[in-house]
Protein backbone atom coordinates (compact mmCIF):
# COMPACT_ATOMS: atom_id res chain seq x y z
CA UNK A 1 0.00 0.00 0.00
CA UNK A 2 2.76 2.43 0.91
CA UNK A 3 4.53 1.86 -2.43
CA UNK A 4 1.38 2.67 -4.37
CA UNK A 5 0.47 5.77 -2.33
CA UNK A 6 3.80 7.59 -2.25
CA UNK A 7 5.08 5.99 0.94
CA UNK A 8 1.84 6.35 2.95
CA UNK A 9 -0.25 3.40 4.09
CA UNK A 10 -3.78 4.78 3.92
CA UNK A 11 -5.34 1.58 5.24
CA UNK A 12 -3.94 1.77 8.79
CA UNK A 13 -2.07 4.07 11.12
CA UNK A 14 -2.28 7.87 11.25
CA UNK A 15 -2.84 8.18 7.48
CA UNK A 16 -5.94 5.95 7.54
CA UNK A 17 -8.60 6.93 5.00
CA UNK A 18 -11.39 4.43 4.33
CA UNK A 19 -12.20 5.66 0.82
CA UNK A 20 -8.55 5.99 -0.21
CA UNK A 21 -7.85 2.54 1.25
CA UNK A 22 -10.55 0.88 -0.83
CA UNK A 23 -9.40 2.73 -3.94
CA UNK A 24 -5.79 1.64 -3.33
CA UNK A 25 -6.82 -1.96 -2.71
CA UNK A 26 -8.73 -1.91 -5.99
CA UNK A 27 -5.64 -0.61 -7.84
CA UNK A 28 -3.28 -3.10 -6.16
CA UNK A 29 -5.43 -6.14 -6.88
CA UNK A 30 -5.84 -5.13 -10.52
CA UNK A 31 -2.07 -4.73 -10.98
CA UNK A 32 -1.38 -8.06 -9.29
CA UNK A 33 -3.95 -9.85 -11.44
CA UNK A 34 -2.44 -8.51 -14.68
CA UNK A 35 1.07 -9.72 -13.86
CA UNK A 36 -0.24 -13.10 -12.68
CA UNK A 37 -2.10 -13.64 -15.95
CA UNK A 38 1.03 -12.86 -17.99
CA UNK A 39 3.15 -15.17 -15.84
CA UNK A 40 0.55 -17.90 -16.01
CA UNK A 41 0.37 -17.84 -19.79
CA UNK A 42 4.15 -18.08 -19.97
CA UNK A 43 4.19 -20.94 -17.44
CA UNK A 44 2.05 -23.10 -19.74
CA UNK A 45 5.09 -23.26 -22.02
CA UNK A 46 7.87 -23.27 -19.42
CA UNK A 47 6.56 -25.96 -17.04
CA UNK A 48 6.67 -28.77 -19.67
CA UNK A 49 10.15 -27.59 -20.59
CA UNK A 50 11.20 -27.92 -16.95
CA UNK A 51 9.75 -31.43 -16.84
CA UNK A 52 11.56 -32.44 -20.02
CA UNK A 53 14.82 -30.96 -18.73
CA UNK A 54 14.39 -32.90 -15.47
CA UNK A 55 14.14 -36.12 -17.51
CA UNK A 56 17.37 -35.22 -19.33
CA UNK A 57 19.58 -33.62 -16.67
CA UNK A 58 18.07 -35.16 -13.53
CA UNK A 59 16.08 -33.52 -10.76
CA UNK A 60 18.80 -31.79 -8.72
CA UNK A 61 20.04 -29.23 -11.30
CA UNK A 62 16.47 -28.10 -11.87
CA UNK A 63 15.93 -27.77 -8.11
CA UNK A 64 18.88 -25.37 -7.96
CA UNK A 65 17.40 -23.42 -10.88
CA UNK A 66 14.01 -23.04 -9.20
CA UNK A 67 15.51 -21.80 -5.94
CA UNK A 68 17.73 -19.41 -7.88
CA UNK A 69 14.64 -18.01 -9.63
CA UNK A 70 12.88 -17.63 -6.26
CA UNK A 71 15.77 -15.43 -5.11
CA UNK A 72 15.11 -12.85 -7.85
CA UNK A 73 11.70 -11.61 -6.52
CA UNK A 74 13.17 -11.48 -3.01
CA UNK A 75 15.99 -9.24 -4.23
CA UNK A 76 13.46 -7.09 -6.12
CA UNK A 77 11.49 -6.68 -2.89
CA UNK A 78 14.70 -5.55 -1.17
CA UNK A 79 15.11 -2.96 -3.92
CA UNK A 80 11.55 -1.72 -3.45
CA UNK A 81 12.00 -1.45 0.31
CA UNK A 82 15.53 -0.03 0.57
CA UNK A 83 16.32 1.60 -2.78
CA UNK A 84 12.92 3.01 -3.84
CA UNK A 85 12.49 0.70 -6.82
CA UNK A 86 9.06 0.70 -8.40
CA UNK A 87 6.73 -1.88 -6.89
CA UNK A 88 6.02 -3.06 -10.42
CA UNK A 89 9.58 -4.42 -10.57
CA UNK A 90 8.60 -6.84 -7.83
CA UNK A 91 5.37 -7.74 -9.64
CA UNK A 92 7.31 -8.45 -12.85
CA UNK A 93 9.97 -10.62 -11.19
CA UNK A 94 7.30 -12.55 -9.27
CA UNK A 95 6.29 -14.08 -12.58
CA UNK A 96 9.43 -16.25 -12.33
CA UNK A 97 7.85 -18.12 -9.42
CA UNK A 98 5.02 -19.15 -11.72
CA UNK A 99 7.19 -19.92 -14.73
CA UNK A 100 9.69 -22.11 -12.83
CA UNK A 101 7.69 -23.71 -9.99
CA UNK A 102 9.38 -25.98 -7.45
CA UNK A 103 6.21 -28.02 -6.88
CA UNK A 104 6.59 -30.07 -10.06
CA UNK A 105 10.14 -31.07 -9.12
CA UNK A 106 9.16 -31.97 -5.57
CA UNK A 107 6.37 -34.21 -6.87
CA UNK A 108 8.79 -35.83 -9.31
CA UNK A 109 11.27 -36.42 -6.49
CA UNK A 110 8.53 -37.99 -4.32
CA UNK A 111 7.42 -40.11 -7.27
CA UNK A 112 10.98 -41.37 -7.79
CA UNK A 113 11.78 -42.15 -4.16
CA UNK A 114 8.59 -43.55 -2.63
CA UNK A 115 6.28 -46.50 -3.06
CA UNK A 116 2.67 -45.75 -4.12
CA UNK A 117 1.26 -46.56 -0.68
CA UNK A 118 3.63 -44.05 0.98
CA UNK A 119 3.02 -41.10 -1.34
CA UNK A 120 0.09 -39.63 0.55
CA UNK A 121 2.20 -39.62 3.72
CA UNK A 122 5.19 -37.96 2.06
CA UNK A 123 2.99 -35.45 0.22
CA UNK A 124 1.29 -34.50 3.48
CA UNK A 125 4.64 -34.06 5.21
CA UNK A 126 5.87 -31.96 2.30
CA UNK A 127 2.85 -29.68 2.69
CA UNK A 128 3.43 -29.53 6.45
CA UNK A 129 7.08 -28.54 6.11
CA UNK A 130 6.13 -26.02 3.43
CA UNK A 131 3.72 -24.53 5.95
CA UNK A 132 6.60 -23.95 8.38
CA UNK A 133 7.91 -21.24 6.07
CA UNK A 134 4.42 -19.78 6.15
CA UNK A 135 4.76 -19.62 9.93
CA UNK A 136 8.33 -18.31 10.02
CA UNK A 137 7.94 -15.43 7.55
CA UNK A 138 4.74 -13.92 9.08
CA UNK A 139 6.30 -14.33 12.52
CA UNK A 140 9.27 -12.24 11.38
CA UNK A 141 6.86 -9.62 10.04
CA UNK A 142 5.09 -9.59 13.38
CA UNK A 143 8.13 -9.16 15.64
CA UNK A 144 10.73 -7.48 13.37
CA UNK A 145 10.83 -4.22 11.47
CA UNK A 146 9.35 -4.55 7.98
CA UNK A 147 12.50 -3.51 6.08
CA UNK A 148 14.66 -5.94 8.03
CA UNK A 149 12.12 -8.69 7.37
CA UNK A 150 12.48 -8.23 3.62
CA UNK A 151 16.25 -8.67 3.88
CA UNK A 152 15.83 -11.79 6.00
CA UNK A 153 13.48 -13.27 3.39
CA UNK A 154 16.14 -12.75 0.73
CA UNK A 155 18.71 -14.55 2.90
CA UNK A 156 16.20 -17.33 3.55
CA UNK A 157 15.78 -17.91 -0.20
CA UNK A 158 19.55 -18.08 -0.57
CA UNK A 159 19.75 -20.60 2.28
CA UNK A 160 17.13 -22.79 0.58
CA UNK A 161 19.19 -22.83 -2.61
CA UNK A 162 22.35 -23.81 -0.71
CA UNK A 163 20.53 -26.63 1.08
CA UNK A 164 19.23 -27.97 -2.25
CA UNK A 165 22.73 -27.77 -3.72
CA UNK A 166 24.54 -29.46 -0.84
CA UNK A 167 22.05 -31.81 0.83
CA UNK A 168 19.49 -32.92 -1.75
CA UNK A 169 20.29 -36.27 -3.35
CA UNK A 170 19.66 -36.99 -7.01
CA UNK A 171 16.66 -39.29 -7.45
CA UNK A 172 16.90 -39.86 -11.21
CA UNK A 173 19.94 -40.77 -13.28
CA UNK A 174 20.65 -38.00 -15.84
CA UNK A 175 20.52 -39.02 -19.49
CA UNK A 176 22.63 -36.17 -20.83
CA UNK A 177 24.82 -33.30 -19.71
CA UNK A 178 24.83 -31.42 -23.01
CA UNK A 179 22.95 -28.16 -23.15
CA UNK A 180 22.41 -28.54 -26.90
CA UNK A 181 20.55 -31.79 -26.27
CA UNK A 182 18.17 -30.07 -23.87
CA UNK A 183 17.58 -27.14 -26.22
CA UNK A 184 16.72 -29.52 -29.03
CA UNK A 185 13.98 -30.95 -26.83
CA UNK A 186 12.36 -27.57 -26.14
CA UNK A 187 9.91 -27.64 -29.04
CA UNK A 188 9.16 -31.29 -28.34
CA UNK A 189 8.34 -30.43 -24.74
CA UNK A 190 5.92 -27.73 -25.87
CA UNK A 191 4.23 -30.16 -28.28
CA UNK A 192 3.95 -32.73 -25.48
CA UNK A 193 1.34 -30.55 -23.82
CA UNK A 194 -1.01 -30.88 -26.79
CA UNK A 195 -0.09 -34.51 -27.40
CA UNK A 196 -0.83 -35.54 -23.83
CA UNK A 197 -4.02 -33.52 -23.31
CA UNK A 198 -6.19 -35.88 -25.45
CA UNK A 199 -4.46 -38.79 -23.77
CA UNK A 200 -5.30 -37.47 -20.30
CA UNK A 201 -8.90 -36.82 -21.34
CA UNK A 202 -9.51 -40.24 -22.90
CA UNK A 203 -11.01 -41.72 -19.71
CA UNK A 204 -14.13 -40.15 -18.29
CA UNK A 205 -13.27 -40.76 -14.62
CA UNK A 206 -9.73 -39.44 -15.08
CA UNK A 207 -10.97 -36.40 -16.97
CA UNK A 208 -13.54 -35.64 -14.28
CA UNK A 209 -11.21 -35.99 -11.30
CA UNK A 210 -8.46 -33.88 -12.88
CA UNK A 211 -10.80 -31.07 -13.91
CA UNK A 212 -12.34 -31.20 -10.45
CA UNK A 213 -8.95 -31.06 -8.75
CA UNK A 214 -7.69 -28.25 -10.96
CA UNK A 215 -10.83 -26.19 -10.39
CA UNK A 216 -10.80 -26.77 -6.62
CA UNK A 217 -7.10 -25.87 -6.36
CA UNK A 218 -7.61 -22.69 -8.36
CA UNK A 219 -10.62 -21.69 -6.27
CA UNK A 220 -8.75 -22.24 -3.01
CA UNK A 221 -5.75 -20.16 -4.07
CA UNK A 222 -8.00 -17.48 -5.54
CA UNK A 223 -9.84 -16.94 -2.27
CA UNK A 224 -6.55 -16.89 -0.35
CA UNK A 225 -5.24 -14.22 -2.74
CA UNK A 226 -8.01 -11.81 -1.73
CA UNK A 227 -7.98 -12.60 2.00
CA UNK A 228 -5.49 -9.88 2.94
CA UNK A 229 -7.14 -7.15 0.80
CA UNK A 230 -10.49 -8.23 2.25
CA UNK A 231 -9.27 -7.97 5.86
CA UNK A 232 -7.45 -4.71 5.17
CA UNK A 233 -10.45 -3.07 3.54
CA UNK A 234 -13.04 -4.41 5.99
CA UNK A 235 -11.21 -4.35 9.33
CA UNK A 236 -8.34 -1.95 8.58
CA UNK A 237 -5.67 -4.43 9.70
CA UNK A 238 -2.01 -3.78 9.10
CA UNK A 239 0.52 -6.20 7.63
CA UNK A 240 1.80 -7.03 11.12
CA UNK A 241 -1.70 -7.76 12.44
CA UNK A 242 -2.63 -9.88 9.44
CA UNK A 243 0.58 -11.90 9.84
CA UNK A 244 -0.83 -13.29 13.10
CA UNK A 245 -3.75 -14.73 11.14
CA UNK A 246 -1.33 -16.34 8.69
CA UNK A 247 0.71 -17.83 11.52
CA UNK A 248 -2.34 -19.46 13.10
CA UNK A 249 -3.72 -20.62 9.76
CA UNK A 250 -0.48 -22.19 8.55
CA UNK A 251 0.15 -23.81 11.93
CA UNK A 252 -3.29 -25.39 11.68
CA UNK A 253 -2.42 -26.54 8.17
CA UNK A 254 0.82 -28.16 9.37
CA UNK A 255 -0.93 -30.02 12.19
CA UNK A 256 -3.67 -31.31 9.90
CA UNK A 257 -1.18 -32.50 7.28
CA UNK A 258 0.74 -34.48 9.87
CA UNK A 259 -2.50 -36.12 11.03
CA UNK A 260 -3.84 -36.99 7.57
CA UNK A 261 -1.87 -40.21 7.08
CA UNK A 262 -3.51 -42.40 9.78
CA UNK A 263 -6.90 -41.75 8.19
CA UNK A 264 -5.92 -42.95 4.73
CA UNK A 265 -6.70 -46.65 5.12
CA UNK A 266 -10.07 -45.90 6.64
CA UNK A 267 -11.12 -43.02 4.41
CA UNK A 268 -9.35 -43.37 1.06
CA UNK A 269 -8.14 -40.59 -1.22
CA UNK A 270 -11.61 -39.74 -2.53
CA UNK A 271 -13.06 -39.21 0.95
CA UNK A 272 -10.08 -37.13 2.08
CA UNK A 273 -10.46 -34.97 -1.03
CA UNK A 274 -14.19 -34.46 -0.42
CA UNK A 275 -13.63 -33.66 3.26
CA UNK A 276 -11.03 -31.05 2.37
CA UNK A 277 -13.42 -29.41 -0.08
CA UNK A 278 -16.24 -29.34 2.48
CA UNK A 279 -14.00 -27.87 5.19
CA UNK A 280 -12.64 -25.29 2.75
CA UNK A 281 -16.16 -24.16 1.85
CA UNK A 282 -17.10 -23.95 5.54
CA UNK A 283 -13.97 -21.87 6.27
CA UNK A 284 -14.77 -19.45 3.46
CA UNK A 285 -18.35 -19.05 4.63
CA UNK A 286 -17.21 -18.40 8.18
CA UNK A 287 -14.58 -15.88 7.06
CA UNK A 288 -17.11 -14.09 4.89
CA UNK A 289 -19.64 -13.73 7.72
CA UNK A 290 -17.11 -12.97 10.47
CA UNK A 291 -18.11 -9.79 12.33
CA UNK A 292 -14.59 -8.92 13.54
CA UNK A 293 -10.94 -9.75 12.98
CA UNK A 294 -10.69 -11.39 16.40
CA UNK A 295 -13.32 -13.91 15.31
CA UNK A 296 -11.25 -14.57 12.19
CA UNK A 297 -8.27 -15.42 14.40
CA UNK A 298 -10.38 -18.01 16.20
CA UNK A 299 -11.63 -19.51 12.95
CA UNK A 300 -8.06 -19.75 11.64
CA UNK A 301 -7.30 -22.46 14.22
CA UNK A 302 -9.40 -24.95 12.24
CA UNK A 303 -8.70 -23.56 8.76
CA UNK A 304 -6.10 -26.26 8.10
CA UNK A 305 -8.79 -28.87 7.53
CA UNK A 306 -9.53 -27.16 4.23
CA UNK A 307 -6.08 -28.16 2.94
CA UNK A 308 -6.60 -31.91 3.40
CA UNK A 309 -7.43 -32.43 -0.26
CA UNK A 310 -4.10 -31.14 -1.58
CA UNK A 311 -1.90 -34.20 -0.80
CA UNK A 312 -4.69 -36.55 -1.90
CA UNK A 313 -4.91 -34.89 -5.30
CA UNK A 314 -1.13 -34.83 -5.67
CA UNK A 315 -1.04 -38.55 -4.91
CA UNK A 316 -3.67 -39.19 -7.58
CA UNK A 317 -1.55 -37.31 -10.12
CA UNK A 318 1.59 -39.28 -9.22
CA UNK A 319 -0.27 -42.60 -9.39
CA UNK A 320 -1.63 -41.66 -12.80
CA UNK A 321 1.85 -40.74 -14.05
CA UNK A 322 3.14 -44.17 -12.99
CA UNK A 323 0.34 -45.96 -14.83
CA UNK A 324 0.27 -43.76 -17.95
CA UNK A 325 3.98 -43.22 -18.61
CA UNK A 326 5.33 -45.61 -21.23
CA UNK A 327 8.90 -45.22 -19.92
CA UNK A 328 10.73 -43.81 -16.92
CA UNK A 329 12.07 -40.96 -19.02
CA UNK A 330 8.54 -39.76 -19.78
CA UNK A 331 7.33 -39.23 -16.23
CA UNK A 332 8.74 -35.72 -15.89
CA UNK A 333 7.07 -34.47 -19.06
CA UNK A 334 3.77 -36.16 -18.23
CA UNK A 335 3.62 -34.80 -14.68
CA UNK A 336 4.67 -31.39 -15.98
CA UNK A 337 1.77 -31.52 -18.45
CA UNK A 338 -0.65 -32.14 -15.60
CA UNK A 339 0.83 -29.29 -13.60
CA UNK A 340 0.73 -26.99 -16.64
CA UNK A 341 -2.98 -27.71 -17.01
CA UNK A 342 -3.44 -27.13 -13.28
CA UNK A 343 -1.51 -23.90 -13.59
CA UNK A 344 -4.13 -22.65 -16.05
CA UNK A 345 -6.66 -22.69 -13.22
CA UNK A 346 -4.18 -21.65 -10.53
CA UNK A 347 -3.10 -18.61 -12.52
CA UNK A 348 -6.32 -17.51 -14.17
CA UNK A 349 -8.68 -17.89 -11.21
CA UNK A 350 -6.86 -15.66 -8.66
CA UNK A 351 -6.81 -12.69 -11.09
CA UNK A 352 -10.48 -13.33 -11.79
CA UNK A 353 -11.30 -13.18 -8.08
CA UNK A 354 -9.02 -10.17 -7.61
CA UNK A 355 -10.73 -8.38 -10.49
CA UNK A 356 -14.15 -9.14 -9.00
CA UNK A 357 -12.94 -7.98 -5.58
CA UNK A 358 -11.47 -4.78 -7.03
CA UNK A 359 -14.89 -3.97 -8.50
CA UNK A 360 -16.94 -4.68 -5.39
CA UNK A 361 -14.48 -3.08 -2.94
CA UNK A 362 -14.58 0.17 -4.88
CA UNK A 363 -16.45 3.00 -3.08
CA UNK A 364 -18.56 3.51 -6.19
CA UNK A 365 -20.06 0.02 -5.76
CA UNK A 366 -22.50 0.59 -2.85
CA UNK A 367 -19.67 2.00 -0.74
CA UNK A 368 -17.73 -1.27 -0.83
CA UNK A 369 -20.37 -3.14 1.20
CA UNK A 370 -20.40 -6.02 -1.31
CA UNK A 371 -16.71 -6.87 -0.98
CA UNK A 372 -17.54 -10.34 0.43
CA UNK A 373 -19.25 -11.48 -2.79
CA UNK A 374 -16.06 -13.06 -4.28
CA UNK A 375 -15.82 -15.28 -1.20
CA UNK A 376 -19.47 -16.22 -1.57
CA UNK A 377 -18.72 -17.22 -5.15
CA UNK A 378 -15.82 -19.32 -3.84
CA UNK A 379 -18.17 -21.14 -1.45
CA UNK A 380 -20.49 -21.89 -4.35
CA UNK A 381 -17.60 -23.22 -6.48
CA UNK A 382 -16.39 -25.51 -3.68
CA UNK A 383 -19.95 -26.75 -3.21
CA UNK A 384 -20.16 -27.60 -6.92
CA UNK A 385 -16.83 -29.47 -6.71
CA UNK A 386 -18.14 -31.58 -3.83
CA UNK A 387 -21.25 -32.52 -5.77
CA UNK A 388 -19.21 -33.54 -8.82
CA UNK A 389 -16.82 -35.58 -6.66
CA UNK A 390 -19.68 -37.41 -4.97
CA UNK A 391 -21.08 -38.15 -8.41
CA UNK A 392 -17.97 -40.12 -9.35
CA UNK A 393 -17.74 -43.84 -8.74
CA UNK A 394 -16.87 -44.57 -5.08
CA UNK A 395 -14.05 -46.95 -6.00
CA UNK A 396 -12.19 -44.21 -7.92
CA UNK A 397 -9.38 -42.99 -5.71
CA UNK A 398 -10.46 -45.24 -2.86
CA UNK A 399 -8.63 -47.86 -0.89
CA UNK A 400 -11.74 -50.01 -0.61
CA UNK A 401 -12.49 -53.00 -2.77
CA UNK A 402 -13.97 -52.55 -6.23
CA UNK A 403 -17.65 -53.39 -6.37
CA UNK A 404 -18.59 -56.01 -8.92
CA UNK A 405 -21.53 -55.95 -11.26
CA UNK A 406 -24.43 -58.01 -10.04
CA UNK A 407 -25.88 -60.72 -12.24
CA UNK A 408 -29.63 -60.98 -11.93
CA UNK A 409 -29.45 -64.73 -12.37
CA UNK A 410 -27.24 -65.00 -9.27
CA UNK A 411 -29.57 -63.09 -6.94
CA UNK A 412 -29.97 -64.79 -3.60
CA UNK A 413 -31.84 -63.56 -0.57
CA UNK A 414 -29.32 -62.34 2.03
CA UNK A 415 -29.78 -62.82 5.74
CA UNK A 416 -31.73 -59.80 6.97
CA UNK A 417 -34.10 -59.31 9.85
CA UNK A 418 -37.77 -59.91 9.22
CA UNK A 419 -39.74 -56.78 8.49
CA UNK A 420 -43.17 -56.27 10.01
CA UNK A 421 -45.82 -53.63 9.38
CA UNK A 422 -47.31 -52.44 12.65
CA UNK A 423 -50.69 -51.81 11.04
CA UNK A 424 -51.81 -53.57 7.86
CA UNK A 425 -54.28 -50.74 7.19
CA UNK A 426 -51.63 -48.00 7.42
CA UNK A 427 -50.00 -47.04 4.14
CA UNK A 428 -47.08 -45.48 6.04
CA UNK A 429 -46.31 -48.71 7.93
CA UNK A 430 -46.48 -50.84 4.79
CA UNK A 431 -44.17 -48.55 2.80
CA UNK A 432 -41.77 -48.34 5.75
CA UNK A 433 -41.42 -52.13 5.93
CA UNK A 434 -40.72 -52.42 2.19
CA UNK A 435 -38.24 -49.52 2.31
CA UNK A 436 -36.32 -51.06 5.22
CA UNK A 437 -36.12 -54.41 3.42
CA UNK A 438 -34.75 -52.92 0.19
CA UNK A 439 -32.21 -50.77 2.07
CA UNK A 440 -30.98 -53.79 4.06
CA UNK A 441 -31.05 -56.47 1.36
CA UNK A 442 -29.99 -54.87 -1.92
CA UNK A 443 -26.57 -53.52 -0.80
CA UNK A 444 -25.76 -56.96 0.69
CA UNK A 445 -26.59 -58.53 -2.66
CA UNK A 446 -23.89 -56.41 -4.32
CA UNK A 447 -25.96 -53.56 -5.73
CA UNK A 448 -24.03 -50.30 -5.71
CA UNK A 449 -25.92 -47.43 -4.11
CA UNK A 450 -25.85 -43.94 -5.59
CA UNK A 451 -26.08 -41.25 -2.91
CA UNK A 452 -25.66 -38.26 -5.22
CA UNK A 453 -29.10 -36.72 -4.81
CA UNK A 454 -29.29 -37.71 -1.15
CA UNK A 455 -25.99 -35.94 -0.50
CA UNK A 456 -27.21 -32.85 -2.34
CA UNK A 457 -30.32 -32.82 -0.18
CA UNK A 458 -28.31 -33.18 3.03
CA UNK A 459 -25.95 -30.37 2.06
CA UNK A 460 -28.83 -28.06 1.19
CA UNK A 461 -30.37 -28.81 4.59
CA UNK A 462 -27.04 -28.03 6.28
CA UNK A 463 -26.91 -24.69 4.46
CA UNK A 464 -30.47 -23.92 5.57
CA UNK A 465 -29.59 -24.68 9.19
CA UNK A 466 -26.41 -22.60 8.91
CA UNK A 467 -28.38 -19.56 7.77
CA UNK A 468 -30.88 -20.06 10.58
CA UNK A 469 -28.26 -20.57 13.31
CA UNK A 470 -26.19 -17.60 12.18
CA UNK A 471 -29.22 -15.31 12.15
CA UNK A 472 -30.39 -16.59 15.54
CA UNK A 473 -27.19 -16.69 17.57
CA UNK A 474 -24.74 -14.26 15.89
CA UNK A 475 -26.66 -11.37 14.35
CA UNK A 476 -28.39 -8.73 16.46
CA UNK A 477 -31.58 -6.87 15.61
CA UNK A 478 -31.91 -4.05 14.57
CA UNK A 479 -28.17 -3.45 14.05
CA UNK A 480 -27.79 -6.32 11.57
CA UNK A 481 -31.28 -6.31 10.09
CA UNK A 482 -29.93 -6.35 6.50
CA UNK A 483 -27.87 -9.47 7.17
CA UNK A 484 -30.81 -11.06 9.01
CA UNK A 485 -32.92 -10.46 5.92
CA UNK A 486 -30.25 -12.08 3.75
CA UNK A 487 -30.19 -15.11 6.07
CA UNK A 488 -33.98 -15.42 5.97
CA UNK A 489 -33.98 -15.19 2.17
CA UNK A 490 -31.17 -17.75 1.96
CA UNK A 491 -33.01 -20.11 4.29
CA UNK A 492 -36.19 -20.06 2.23
CA UNK A 493 -34.25 -20.24 -1.06
CA UNK A 494 -32.41 -23.43 -0.11
CA UNK A 495 -35.54 -24.86 1.54
CA UNK A 496 -37.32 -24.39 -1.78
CA UNK A 497 -34.49 -26.23 -3.53
CA UNK A 498 -34.92 -29.16 -1.10
CA UNK A 499 -38.66 -29.18 -1.83
CA UNK A 500 -38.02 -29.22 -5.59
CA UNK A 501 -35.63 -32.17 -5.24
CA UNK A 502 -38.21 -34.06 -3.21
CA UNK A 503 -40.95 -33.26 -5.73
CA UNK A 504 -39.18 -33.87 -9.04
CA UNK A 505 -36.24 -36.18 -8.23
CA UNK A 506 -36.76 -38.26 -5.10
CA UNK A 507 -40.55 -38.61 -5.47
CA UNK A 508 -41.57 -41.97 -3.93
CA UNK A 509 -38.20 -43.71 -4.24
CA UNK A 510 -36.84 -45.68 -1.30
CA UNK A 511 -33.26 -45.84 -2.61
CA UNK A 512 -31.09 -45.20 -5.66
CA UNK A 513 -29.02 -47.95 -7.32
CA UNK A 514 -26.69 -48.59 -10.24
CA UNK A 515 -28.38 -51.04 -12.63
CA UNK A 516 -26.76 -51.79 -15.97
CA UNK A 517 -24.48 -48.79 -15.58
CA UNK A 518 -27.46 -46.46 -15.12
CA UNK A 519 -28.57 -44.58 -12.01
CA UNK A 520 -32.00 -45.97 -11.16
CA UNK A 521 -34.54 -44.94 -8.52
CA UNK A 522 -36.49 -47.75 -6.84
CA UNK A 523 -40.02 -46.33 -6.51
CA UNK A 524 -42.55 -47.89 -4.14
CA UNK A 525 -45.98 -46.27 -4.46
CA UNK A 526 -49.41 -46.73 -2.89
CA UNK A 527 -52.30 -44.47 -3.79
CA UNK A 528 -54.60 -43.30 -0.96
CA UNK A 529 -57.51 -45.67 -0.21
CA UNK A 530 -56.04 -48.33 -2.50
CA UNK A 531 -54.88 -51.89 -1.79
CA UNK A 532 -52.41 -51.93 -4.70
CA UNK A 533 -48.67 -51.42 -4.28
CA UNK A 534 -46.56 -50.49 -7.32
CA UNK A 535 -42.81 -51.18 -7.48
CA UNK A 536 -40.91 -49.52 -10.34
CA UNK A 537 -37.46 -48.65 -11.63
CA UNK A 538 -37.05 -45.07 -12.86
CA UNK A 539 -33.95 -43.45 -14.35
CA UNK A 540 -35.41 -40.11 -15.45
CA UNK A 541 -36.25 -37.10 -13.32
CA UNK A 542 -38.93 -34.49 -13.87
CA UNK A 543 -42.52 -33.65 -12.94
CA UNK A 544 -44.14 -36.10 -15.38
CA UNK A 545 -41.49 -38.82 -15.57
CA UNK A 546 -42.76 -42.26 -14.61
CA UNK A 547 -40.98 -45.53 -13.96
CA UNK A 548 -39.65 -47.21 -17.12
CA UNK A 549 -40.61 -50.63 -15.77
CA UNK A 550 -43.08 -51.29 -12.96
CA UNK A 551 -45.27 -53.97 -11.44
CA UNK A 552 -48.53 -53.38 -9.55
CA UNK A 553 -50.31 -55.94 -7.42
CA UNK A 554 -52.29 -56.24 -4.21
CA UNK A 555 -50.31 -55.51 -1.07
CA UNK A 556 -51.64 -58.78 0.35
CA UNK A 557 -49.27 -60.62 -2.00
CA UNK A 558 -46.30 -59.33 0.00
CA UNK A 559 -47.62 -59.35 3.58
CA UNK A 560 -49.18 -62.13 5.62
CA UNK A 561 -52.03 -61.74 8.09
CA UNK A 562 -49.61 -60.95 10.96
CA UNK A 563 -48.00 -58.09 9.04
CA UNK A 564 -44.69 -59.83 8.18
CA UNK A 565 -43.18 -59.05 4.79
CA UNK A 566 -42.71 -61.98 2.40
CA UNK A 567 -39.11 -61.36 1.43
CA UNK A 568 -38.88 -64.10 -1.22
CA UNK A 569 -41.99 -62.85 -3.01
CA UNK A 570 -40.99 -59.20 -3.20
CA UNK A 571 -37.41 -60.06 -4.18
CA UNK A 572 -38.67 -62.28 -7.01
CA UNK A 573 -40.73 -59.42 -8.43
CA UNK A 574 -37.80 -57.04 -8.07
CA UNK A 575 -35.53 -59.48 -9.96
CA UNK A 576 -38.01 -59.58 -12.85
CA UNK A 577 -38.07 -55.78 -12.96
CA UNK A 578 -34.26 -55.62 -13.08
CA UNK A 579 -34.14 -58.15 -15.95
CA UNK A 580 -36.76 -56.21 -17.86
CA UNK A 581 -34.99 -52.90 -17.25
CA UNK A 582 -31.60 -54.23 -18.41
CA UNK A 583 -33.19 -55.73 -21.52
CA UNK A 584 -34.89 -52.46 -22.47
CA UNK A 585 -31.77 -50.46 -21.65
CA UNK A 586 -29.55 -52.64 -23.85
CA UNK A 587 -32.11 -52.43 -26.67
CA UNK A 588 -32.25 -48.63 -26.37
CA UNK A 589 -28.44 -48.40 -26.37
CA UNK A 590 -28.24 -50.58 -29.50
CA UNK A 591 -30.75 -48.36 -31.31
CA UNK A 592 -28.80 -45.22 -30.42
CA UNK A 593 -25.58 -46.81 -31.64
CA UNK A 594 -27.26 -47.79 -34.91
CA UNK A 595 -28.53 -44.23 -35.42
CA UNK A 596 -25.00 -42.86 -34.98
TrEMBL record:
Database matches in CDD domains: MFS
Protein family: Belongs to the SPCS2 family.
GO cellular component: signal peptidase complex
Protein name: Signal peptidase complex subunit 2
First-listed, main subcellular location of the protein, grouped into a coarse class: endoplasmic reticulum
InterPro entries according to UniProt: MFS_trans_sf, Spc2/SPCS2
Keywords recorded for this protein, A-Z: Endoplasmic reticulum, Membrane, Transmembrane, Transmembrane helix
Transmembrane segment boundaries: 33-50, 62-81, 87-110, 209-230, 242-260, 267-289, 295-313, 333-353, 373-392, 452-475, 481-505
GO molecular function: transmembrane transporter activity
Highest taxon, organism lineage: Eukaryota
Gene Ontology biological process terms from the UniProt entry: signal peptide processing
Coiled coil (UniProt feature): none
Signal peptide (UniProt feature, chain positions): none
Subcellular location: Endoplasmic reticulum membrane
Record carries keyword Chloroplast: no
Membrane-topology descriptor: Multi-pass membrane protein
Keyword Zinc: no
Family matches, as Pfam families: SPC25
